[in-house]
Amino acid sequence: MANSLRSFSIGLIVASVACGAVYFTNTSNETDAEVQAETLLTDDEMIEQLEEQGYLVRNSEEWEDEVNTVIDTTRLEVEAEFAAQEEEESEEEPEEEQEEEQETEEVFLLIIRNGMTSFQVADELIRGNIIDNKQEFVAQAEQQNLAGFLKPGAYEITSGMSTAEIFALIT
């Protein structure tokens, strides 16, 4: 039994030495690393290759700037459209009714983008003087399970609208 145990131990030692010799004498590990280093592209090279293939590449800051520019432009266009409509309507209405409307309701253009949360919508509504309490608006949205169902788009919100009316419009 001792003889077979000694033979087994010698076999393990020989196998370990053989594996170690192959591992340390193999130069393909260095060449693989060199090949990998040569194939890695810099950010500029990747962008250049993608643009050559017809892709438009933007970093997150450039993307946010473009999205905000589009939103601001859209907001201005829609506000101008609403102003023109209000002008046409005001020409048709008597002056007394027009003064009453202007005193009681303010119109705010709310633009909801993809991925906006109820917190962000509440911030916009506060900015437009439509709601006074952000926490109350968000709590009602969560209570009614509406937070994940906000529809992207442009909405005309008046200061006289209730929270329920706002939710009905934007969901």
Topology at a glance:
Layout: H1 2-25, H2 28-39, H3 43-52, H4 60-92, H5 95-104, E1 107-112, H6 118-127, H7 134-143, E2 153-158, H8 163-170
Antiparallel strand pairs: 1-2
Helix pairs in contact: 6-7
Structural account:
With 171 residues, the chain is mainly α. The protein contains eight helices and two strands, in the order H-H-H-H-H-E-H-H-E-H. Strands 1-2 form a two-stranded antiparallel sheet. The model has no long low-confidence stretch (mean pLDDT 81).
Give a brief outline of the structure.
The protein is mostly helical. The chain has helices at 2-25, 28-39, 43-52, 60-92, 95-104, 118-127, 134-143, 163-170, and strands at residues 107-112, 153-158.
Main traits of this protein?
single chain, mainly alpha, two-stranded antiparallel ribbon, elongated, 171 residues
Distance between the termini: 82 Å
Helical content (DSSP H or I, runs of 4+): 55-70%
Low-confidence stretches: none
Question: Nearest-angstrom radius of gyration?
Answer: 34 Å
User: Helices and strands: which structural class?
Assistant: mainly alpha
Described by the principal axes of the CA atoms, the overall outline is elongated
Number of helices: 8
Output the helix-strand order: HHHHHEHHEH
Hey, roughly how much beta strand do the residues contain? Answer: 5-15%
Report the major sheet.
2 strands, antiparallel
Strands side by side in the biggest sheet: 1-2
Number of strands: 2
Q: How confident is the prediction overall: mean pLDDT?
A: 81
